[in-house]
Design goal:
Blueprint lengths: L3 E6 L14 H17 L4 H6 L2 E2 L2 E8 L8 E11 L3 E9 L5 E10 L1 E2 L8 H4 L1 H10 L5
Antiparallel strand pairs: 1-4, 2-7, 3-6, 4-5, 5-6
Length: about 140
Amino acid sequence: MFVSEKQIEIRYAETDQMGVVYHANYLIWMEIGRTQLIHDLGFDYAKLEEQGYISPVLDLTVQYKKAMRYGQVATVRTWVESHDKLRTTYGYEILHEDGSIAATGTTLNTLVKRENLRPFPLVKADPAWDAKYKEIARSQQ
């Protein structure tokens, strides 16, 4: 299984009044992780958008395990959990510096044409990208 990693230095602005990372920032970090995974695989999401496609999140889950705080470094681990004709599920772990899990999650994404927001198979937009996702998906469909 291919896993991408991205380190994020936690900024003061990402914390709440208790000094704990505000929960919505984990969603942003998951997006950063997803972008890093795509980059690590040699693809470019911006080019896909230039071709008229976008990839909205249809569903997401996050399980918070252990608080993170300002000054720490979070590691976002991202992989393709599953991939089929129209949907990709990404898996995430957000880790403390000692390797303990701060949060886990998934996002379910699809590819749509920007002009009409109708689902569009990744294999038709970018066959190489689709093939790579099928190759590295944790669970085969």
